[in-house]
Amino acid sequence: MEFVSGYRDEFLDFAALLFGWFRKFASERGTGVGGGNGPEGRSRLMEAQVRRLPPDPALWVLHILPNRSVGISLGQGAKQGPGPGLGAARLLGDEPPLCLRDLSPYVSFVSLEDGEEEEDGEEEGTGEEEGELEEEGEQATTSREPTQDAETPGEPEDAEEEAGGEDSSGGDTREDGGEEEIGPEKRRGKRGDAAPLHLACLLLVTDEHGTILGIDLLMGGPQGSGGRATGAEGLAQRAYTLLCHSMACPMGAGDPRRPRQLTVGDPQLHRELESLVPRLGVKLAKAPMRTWGPRPGFTFASLRARACHVCHRHSFEVKLMPCPQCGAVLYCGETCVWADWRRRPDDVSHRFWCPRLAAFMGRAGELAALPFTYTAEVTSEMFNKEAFLASRGLTRGYWTQLSMLLPGPVAPGYPPGNGPPLSLLLSGDPYQLLQGDGPPLMPPVPPDPPRGPFVPELNIQNKQSLKIHVVEAGKEFDLIMVFWELSVLLPHVALELQFVGGALPPENDQQHFTLQRDGSGVSVRPGSGVSARPGSGAKEKGSRRDLQIKISARPYHLLQGPKPDLVIGFNSGFGLKDTWLSSLPRLQSLRVPAFFTESSEYSCVMDEQTMAGATGGGTSPPQPNPFRSPFRLRAADNCMPWYCNAFIFHLVYKPPQGSGTRPAPGPAPPVPAPTVPLVPARRRRGDKRPSRGGRRRR
């Protein structure tokens, strides 16, 4: 698939944006873009350029974010020789990863807190100053040693290389005992021989609305100083350089500009910048910022800089323009336009897709027609999802699944990024987890409720039991308690729901439990693998108001069991997973009603092509799903309307051989040779008497 906007983890797009801007910033800072004789000449030229920029009425904020617990570990796959590296190619290239775990062979995050006790034991018996020097030397070693091994394999390595050259926490503070202290760091990495990189401090420039405008990474700063850089280039000069580049080349949306006023989130840095910031024609706030943001409820915006569909360069590097014919795809210039137009084979070129994409763009108004008071905001192309959730108090429960900034429910010791454990997914009132602290989002009664069942073949109203398979479930598994609504909508049906997919947690494989009404709430009764609540009785078979839940952490074509009544899938993406090439033929052999949703009409067309290639069948014409998400998804390289579960369709199976069709004519049977007809023998008179007697008796 050419466009993966509705299927890729939001964090990966965000990481590609951050490191893409940082690489440009680091290269220009190192080479001295702008000319001039020496650093002072380049600084004066940069200041003159910034002073000529138009003013921005919004307040800008300089954040200082120290880091003492998380390190960056480089995998063996990252060490692939010189150049930008395989990790960078996978993050920004033609085949970008869809999930964060796809980058684990190249880069991962490790905890730096596990070995603190070991470090304390090694430093026992030394003086306070000596211990600080050893700790400082250890961090400098861990931030510089991987550079010699990895030769800039990817984005985190680029950050480390640039910071290692300019941050004075490198060679000046390195002690002889630093080499001996790398051992605990290596043990904590668990990824290879190289010690994990320590990102000591992060400088972040935003405006008062939360739009990120610039970033700088400081590797291996002393933990005792809160991650502040020391030495030849102080933190103030580094922050000043970052401010200049953020104004001349802002990461977020908008043209180059300079703020009228700046506030800083660190008292010491605020004092050091008092003499530098006025050179840019910017007024520094009288006092440093005392809280997390300039106003209550401050959060980072979800607006992202877009990128060219062909070369993947962002809007802060080049000026983007949509295709003049369809207006759906973004390009940086005529070169990329013609490269995409003439792509081979022809069915993947923009020449082939341009008329179809124009038709898809024409349905943007139909998808935005929703019965909510906030429809205009959430369906806008500039929709800021993080600000919307924060302003309405949607900061807990299931709403954390929609946010990249809000921490979801995790158990102690559970690794973040892989979803909450099953015990937490099954706790609490399912409806309580959908509520926020602000006004309700859903209208009490939809003005135009959807009519007609989606699955007419099942005749649900006359069924007593219904077995449903949820195929390739990922995000839906994290919202498992929401499916209790099925038992409310179908109180007369005994429901069994089985989640199937290779993305499910392996530790939950073959688990079985039952959701049942418990007064005004919902309780969990174990089937296998889930502990029962005190006082809950266990029955062999669920009633009609119960919801049976089963989990199979494997691809659908490997599932063994009885045939289901219905198969459903959400945002399936047949062309993005190789397992569908085996699962679709399995569905063809079962011939059960199978309904799927997609996030765009383009994805539905790609699913139809995959179904035809895998089974010879097809799909029904996609229809807008009345229960789609109202939040518009912002795409990086196109302007098409993307919504979670936007369209719905069902599989059309290939007719089985010999059903309703005449067999093909074959060769005529051989004609037997003519023979002399047999003459019956003359019967004797005595032989006829028994038969005559029998007739008389009858």
TrEMBL record:
GO terms for molecular function: histone deacetylase binding; zinc ion binding. The keyword Nucleotide-binding does not apply. Residues 308-354 form the MYND-type domain. Residues 681-698 have a biased composition (Basic residues). Keywords: Metal-binding, Zinc, Zinc-finger. One of its GO terms (biological process) is negative regulation of DNA-templated transcription. Residues 113-138, 152-165 have a biased composition (Acidic residues). This is Zinc finger MYND-type containing 15.
